[in-house]
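Recap from last week: sequence in, structure out.
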Amino acid sequence: MRKTIPLLLIAALVLTSCGRVRDSRINPLNWFGRAEAREVTPSETNPLIPRRSAISLRPDRPDERTPVAQITEMTVDRLPGGAIVRVTGVPSRQGAYNVGLKAVDGADGPDDVLRYVLVADQPVRPVGTAASRQVVAAVRVSDQDLATIKRIEVLSASNILTSRR
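Predicted structure tokens:
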């Protein structure tokens, strides 16, 4: 009985001091403080893209990718907030790289059509089998863009694939 009362008093004092430790600098969870919101400046939009300096006078290189020879498959997969347009194609030569879907301006067609061209950098190499030359590219389209779109077209050098709503 003699030992339990002092132990209970010590335990009560330790537990009541937890409230002070929670707000003190001893607690490691308080070392960095609370999160604060601030506006993003245009120069901070993507820290992984280096900023251009006045020293580098080289102009931006134009996109010199050429259309892929043939498109074999196109799928439009729905996801929350939009859709992913995935295209599979076969270039004319082996070793195509930097593959992508390049948006085409809709000046020559209706406004409810979204057009892309499957393009790639295609080096001069020997021709391989079609399976070894196969490339895949995808692009995400938001729900806001899809609201006015009734048809998605992807062009290549020899064919066009279309997906309708």
